[in-house]
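haha ok so turns out i had the wrong file open the whole time. this is the CORRECT one, sorry everyone. sequence first:
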Amino acid sequence: MQIIDDIAICVAIMGLDESGNLVVTACNDPFLHLTGATGAADVFPIPFDAQREHPALRTLREKLLACFASSPMQEPEQTHDFRDGTQWWRLSFKPLTRSGGAAAREILVTGFDMAARIALTKGPEVNGSRYRALVDLAYDAIVTMDEQHNITLFNRAAENLFGYSSAEVVGRPIVTLLPEKFRANHPRKVQQFADSYQPSLRRATPPRMDETNSVYGQHRDGSVIPVEIAVSKIELDGGTEFMAVVRDITDRAKLMDLLKKQAGTDALTGLPNRRAFSEFVAKVLATDDGLSVFILDIDFFKEINDQHGHDAGDEVLCVLAECAASLTAERRLFARWGGEEFVAALPGADAHLAHRIAEELRQRCERQDFEHLWRSRPIPFTVSIGVVTREAGEVDVDSLMKRADRALYRAKKSGRNRVEAG
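then structure:
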């Protein structure tokens, strides 16, 4: 343990006693000091739950218990930043299971002193081998560059993230790691950061790694990687270096894209929903482009539900969605407005073209001129449509849709299964 103690690394094995309380079954001195455990490193197990009540320790205890409760197959390893005053340790939890076991029997805790790692960069007494060992232990990519924007350090996590070896990129321009379209603007952004950097503020409030500083990197194979980055400016031997801690957020970016898509998608038909439609129309109205819209209502839809059942009614909604979507070009949008009402946005379409598109859709529904494998027998249905074209200077979505709704009302009052212009 002497070597580990010297380079400020803590190691412990955690377990649960018969009552389900956390115990330390083995550890080194830094872990004892970190947790304030009462006991000697040669007398185990040491009760962990009985330690002093402190917010950082309570959070650590909750993380450990959650790790015991989670499936090792789903989360084979977790990390946790332990902060207490001036202490900052990055801990890793690795569940240890018996062969074929589903639940963690013990948890191996390893960690290194982040504050010590940062301190190593500030003085001439820096031990290069220790510093490199700590940097290479980091789970996040760490990249540094000099004042000429050339890479000076590239840790193992960076090698894994970007696909280059350290030997390949050290000395090369930092823009090697950026997509082509971001390279020209990068020097200006670095200069802006250097001019606005406030080290006293950074010490008081460590830089967060969240969506506010999300950018893109480029892998060696050319693929683009969404990442988040925290940057520090370092004065070293009379010069300036910039250190970036880079984290891959590919999974998070995919999840955010999925959530955004779900937020703007109608669950039944798969069409854009009212929110997505309104946002689309608002963007067009913010320009001087021409625009027509129509609102559509399935005639006597309540009778379809009453005669055939709500499942059949849902199928009619989906059939209409398929039929109408096939008529929309790339710049057009067909969406579900709500219930049995649908809407279409036709950028660039004048009143004549919009009326022709709406009439074609009405006729296809009336003739059942579409392909669909009905679950039972085909259900005939017709639609009524109200069409309007943007007036000069019209910028409000609600007023535009109200005019379309009034045109739809006239179509229904005039006998349904027709198109009325407003």
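Residues 2-113 form a domain with the Beta-Lactamase fold (CATH 3.30.450.20).
again sry for the mixup
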